[in-house]
Design a protein that fits this description.
97 residues; mainly beta; 5-stranded antiparallel β-sheet; 7 strands; globular
Length: 97
């Protein structure tokens, strides 16, 4: 599925990023990696799913291990930075209302 496809097209699109493609870091330490897309916002929700935690930051949802959530002291209202690489973004067509 990672084959290059024709990128031509027209119309409205949205951007989707899988939760496992999103990194979460404390707000005071913007990651120094190749991820250039950053959202700095308070955590609006934390949902535990088995040994993983889904973290909503602005319009993004990241997924970290429960151990990482504890180590980072993640809690609702805490400001963090959610980051993702451009290669993690997927375009999806939007239907007109």
């Amino acid at each position: 599925m990672d084959e290059l496809q024709d990128a031509s097209g027209e119309g409205r699109v949205g951007v989707v990023v899988y939760p496992w493609e999103v990194s979460i870091a404390p707000a005071e330490s913007v990651p120094a990696d190749s991820a250039l897309n950053h959202v700095s916002a308070p955590i609006s929700s934390l949902v535990t799913i088995g040994n993983r935690v889904r973290v909503r930051v602005g319009p993004l949802v990241g997924e970290v291990t429960a151990a990482s959530a504890d180590r980072l002291a993640l809690e609702r209202g805490r400001f963090v930075v959610a980051s993702f690489k451009a290669t993690g973004a997927r375009l999806v067509p939007l239907r007109d209302a």
